Amino acid sequence: MFEGLMSKMESAFKKFRSKGKLTPADVKEGMREIKLALLEADVNFKVVKEFIGRVTERAVGAEVLESIQPGVQVVKIVNDEMTAIMGGKQEKINISPSPPTVIMMVGLNGAGKTTHTGKIALALKKENKKPLLVACDVYRPAAVKQLEIAGEKTGTPVFSMADEKDPVKIAEAGVRHAKNNGNDIVFIDTAGRMQIDEVLMDELKNIKKAVNPHEILLVIDAMIGQESVGVAETFNNMLDITGVVLTKLDGDTRGGAALSVRYATGKPIKYVGMGEKVDSPDSLEAFHPDRMASRILGMGDMLTLFDKAQQAFDEKKAEELEKKLREQSFTLEDYLEQFQAMKKMGSMEQILSMLPGVNAGALKDAKIDENQIARTEAIIKSMTKQEKNKPDIINSSRKKRIAAGSGTSVEEVNKLLKQFGQTNKLMKQFMGGGKKKKFGKMGLPF
């Protein structure tokens, strides 16, 4: 995401960094490039104007112009101001002290409202919440079925009323059902339209009045660019939304919505969504303005990567793994477990894109083989317990048997054994010489 904006910002930063001293004229020239980059990325012109003004004011100060590394200082200012434009800090879902917390999901058709209702429910389930999905879209064909599929994939119950056509009554009944069945979060999945109209808004106002939601989350398609600002402002004026869910950030989006919505509404972006899969580990992220600014400026996002790792790697297993490494008893079974945990973190492309200095554009054409984990799993599972514990005994005849059993080739078996040997050697060196590093929840750095 933000590939075009990232490359243009990096181009402007190179000019700043290449100069030992900056003049006000240098700052003005660089700011012009950044301004054009933001406008081309479909950022709202009011946001661009204020952003450039704030950065320029700070950048032409004596503290920057007379510093030893003025280019680095300017980049820091741009990062700070971009973070501020997007809200400054993460804002989580407001959980009511008296359950259930009612979350009303609103937005236009096609934005991914129902899909992201399921995604957020799954995220809250991981925080030991017991969500309920309430189907209040009585107009769109198969809307209830779509919500039921999302519920099935995330293991979340769905409340619907087949014979009831009044969404207000369904919403009220859904909240009662949650109270009676111990659900502490209620998602009201409302109807959308292809465009904003009076009928839609009246219905949403009536549902709001009936269930008094603690959160009203507006789901916006990031790919609509400038239009997202108008949509956000209208919904906010009519309903006083509490937050935004920005979807399809993995599409051909230029970044304008992420940088404009907070400014236009004063309401925080709480989640960003990528992809259509409800239960995919990399399809929803909590929105952190500072981390997003860092990504846009090509600085990576190590904190989100660490968060994903902590969710994927079990702490107890990590401690057991550390003990095995110290005792030099790391096996192919352990090796496989680490690959399986990596799979929970999302696609390799997304993981790599969070590393500082990794060119997102280069990743586009990179041949990242997402099936490698599946092949590794098949090869190791085709081994006997003795072979997993002592891979040195795997001779040519055993390799042929393993390859046949896993549907791979002897060459692939050899490659895996070589990788395992190199990893084991590396870990022995790492744990030797008195260097004792606590792995915590991170597991192995494969």
Which tags fit this structure?
alpha/beta, 56% helix, 9% strand, 446 residues
Report on this structure:
The chain is of the alpha/beta class. 56% of the residues lie in helices and 9% in strands. The chain is built from 21 helices and 8 strands. It has helices spanning 3-17, 24-40, 45-59, 62-65, 70-85, 113-125, 143-154, 167-181, 198-211, 227-239, 256-265, 289-296, 302-312, 315-326, 332-344, 348-353, 360-365, 372-381, 385-389, 396-406, 410-431, and strands at 101-107, 131-135, 158-159, 185-189, 215-221, 243-247, 269-273, 284-286. α11 links the parallel β6 and β7. α10 (227-239) runs parallel beside α11 (256-265). The relative contact order is 0.10. The model is unreliable at 433-446 (pLDDT under 50).
Output the number of helix runs. Answer: 21
Provide the helix percentage.
55-70%
Q: What structural class do helix, strand and pairing data support?
A: alpha/beta
The percentage of residues in β strands lies in: 5-15%
Radius of gyration from the alpha-carbon trace, in angstroms: 26 Å
Low-confidence stretches: 433-446
Q: How many strands appear in the DSSP assignment?
A: 8
What is the topology, as strand order, of the major beta sheet? 3-2-4-1-5-6-7-8
Mean pLDDT: 81
**Would you list the SSEs in sequence order as H and E?**
HHHHHEHEHEHEHEHEHEEHHHHHHHHHH
